[in-house]
Amino acid sequence: MPSVLPDGEPAPADGALPASVLEGAVDRAFGVYVHVPYCRVRCGYCDFNTYTASELGGGASQAGYASEAATELSFGAGVMRAAGLPERPVSTVFFGGGTPTLLPASDLALMLARVRDEWGLAPGAEITTEANPDSVDEAYLETLAEAGFTRVSFGMQSAVPHVLHTLDRTHTPERVPVVVAAARAVGLQVSLDLIYGTPGESLADWERSLDAALENAPDHLSAYALIVEAGTKLAGQIRRGQVAEPDDDLHAEMYELLDARLAAAGYDWYEISNWSRTADTRSRHNLSYWTGEDWWGAGPGAHSHMGGLRWWNVKHPRAYAERMSQGLSPAHARETLTDEARHSERVLLETRIKDGFPIAALSEHGRAAIAGLIGDGLIDGRAALGVAGAEPRVVPTLRGRLLADTVVAKLLE
To answer: Where is the Radical SAM core domain (predicted)?
Structure first.
């Protein structure tokens, strides 16, 4: 089952935001995330806030969900206006889940239209939905493109049948090139998501998946090491000895192979787990998370952030639907980040990206760690020294990406 929501400060029923969110808001981009909490099958490794039909129970339905989420989007726009936040057209919209494309394409179009009506869309706004390869066809994707979507992110995960089986994925490898071609035919950019380190997956299996992904020539590619989350089906299988535990050394080999193969194919890493063909095909929505921009997260369990205030919605679709029907904020709780917490989070996130973290913004102890990190081959020495007049920044090397937690720990000691 999905992980438990954290506790926090009580969230007001009217969603009112404190005056602190106004500071610097005019200089921050604004995005929208819409969580669609439905899946046809619960994958054994997943602890996201998602539900199959059998898990929903009464009082919640997929059929009414688009209307409920649209209600929250209007509610959110009203809350932001009441707080006195500057008018900012939406730069990025991301539909995630779950499987957003289990809903009719017209439902996604309806929710996007509500975003456009309430806030407006910035010129060139990036509009993305996640999709399973077996949850869409060309007609579905054409409806999305006509509604204003610009990207689709397919959960490919692997091209090897036994790996897909272990992950409980429902599509076949042969389906991926079909939907990639369909997305391209209607003018959508394509991102592929991969997972490496699945129990039983060999280095040769992983290379086969990379070959298949590159044959599709996606605009963008994300690749994540499998993490075994407590309480998942996969965690239970490992505990019972039914499948092997992930091997950290093999994970590292897989990542090195991944980075080398993508670089050779013309892709550039811009975040530890993300590569793009060009700067224009980076995921601007995800970059907004890593650089501390503002976003409203709509839907059960969705998280939002405004100027150091973070809040998260009630988890279950039934509780969410009840809040929406009563005109109440769906927020479960919230927290105001201290200056120290905001600094630590900024170091944690911005040292993951190729643009790096400005050394001048580190504490004295953090700056003192730079020489050792260069000597250990964990950060780029030229970037840290500010070669050719550039601002000195912390940018991880390949080894530093593999040991990202060590880099962050040294900078925050």
So the answer is: 24-268
Q: Which of 313, 316, 411 minimizes the C-alpha distance to 369? A: 411
Residues sharing a CB contact under 8 Å with residue 194, sequence separation 6 or more, in sequence order: 156, 157, 158, 209, 210, 213, 221, 222, 223, 224
Start-to-end C-alpha separation, the chain: 35
Q: What domains, with CATH codes, occur in the chain?
A: 19-290 (3.20.20.70), 338-413 (no CATH)
As given in the structure block, the two tokens for residue 185 are 């035919």
The burial of 242, by beta-carbon neighbours within 10 Å (0-12 exposed, 13-18 middle, 19 or more buried), is given as: exposed
Checking if the pLDDT of 235 tops 80, the result is no
Q: Is the pTM of this model over 0.90?
A: yes
The 3-state DSSP composition of the chain as helix, strand, coil percent (nearest 5) reads: 45, 20, 35
Q: What is the pLDDT of residues 322-347, one digit of tens each?
A: 999 999 999 999 999 999 999 999 99
pLDDT at residue 249 tops 80: yes
Query: Positive or negative CA dihedral for 163, 167, 169, 175?
Result: negative
CA nearest neighbour of 88 among 265, 264, 379, 295: 295
Specify the DSSP class assigned to residue 49: S
